[in-house]
Design a protein that fits this description.
The protein is of the alpha+beta class. It has two domains: 3-157, ph1033 like domains (ph1033 like fold, Roll); 173-319, no CATH class. 30% of the residues lie in helices and 19% in strands. The longest helix has 15 residues, at 173-187. It is globular, with a radius of gyration of 21 Å. Mean pLDDT is 87; it is low at 159-170.
Length: 328
Amino acid sequence: MNFWWVNHNQTFRQEFFGRYIWSPKRKQNDQINPFYETMREVAPGDIIYSFAESAVQGFGIAQTHAYTSPLPDEFGQIGKKSWDNKGWRVDVNFHKFPEPIRPIQHMHAIGPTLPGRYSPIRSNGFGNQGVYLAQIPKPMALVIAQLASPELLGIIQGIYIAETAETPLPELRGVLEWEDHECEQITHDGHLGDTEKQSLIKARRGQGIFRQNVIRIEHFCRVTHVDKPEHLIASHIKPWRESNNEERLFGGNGLLLTPTIDHLFDRGFISFENNGELLISPVAHEESMQKMGIITDRVIKVGNFAETQSEFLEFHRSKVFLKRGMHG
């Protein structure tokens, strides 16, 4: 279990009551922001403190790893000009404290536990501007819990577990909503014929024309070596939900994968270098990976990819693959 602190002043109500946290993937100038990269390190079961209006408003238990999700509609005009339309989302089951905890009133207790680097609050108890999500040490988490919630204190101390993270469903809530919205737009697009609409929607699940196009390039699952078509999914390298209509049907944007490997690839737990080296996310659970057929104790090569696949693999490594940020 790790401990996190989110400073979400202007989006507090949307995120806290919507039960998620969301950040852009990059700064406006496309530079890496270490406090967005931390989203990729959160794991189900982690504790996240919610800080807004100069107070810790409550805590949440992470339900998922980070996954790509569009800028939430409920943000309205917040971030429209400065944030990219796609970012990282983590589903979080938030709980309000009976009384918000104002660090400024408790710095005699909190101060000695602040992290030496990347602290989400300053020594005077005010939030650190520019910090969205930061990891905090267990002693700091314990001090806040002792001030706020016997229930949370018990969870952290391991005395009892009042709630555990749910097993993520095959379709994450935000992803499903996003894909349904995309399908709705395709259905009502007057510039597309009925046949093209059907092809694009079928491509969402690796079927139809897209599958035929992928089979011209790929012939088996590169990880498991399964080659029976009935056991393989035509998986988008650049996710269907993030692709334009041409990319959704393009064979170079696809791999043939068994369902388990498709799940790991789509959720960013694995990726591939252009030279065929299998990449395993540092946030992935090693024992589970092994049970799902991923060898973790040595470098695995799955064969070089076609030039048409390289651009899409670069997107996957940059925008989907879960990496460690400044704490890795």
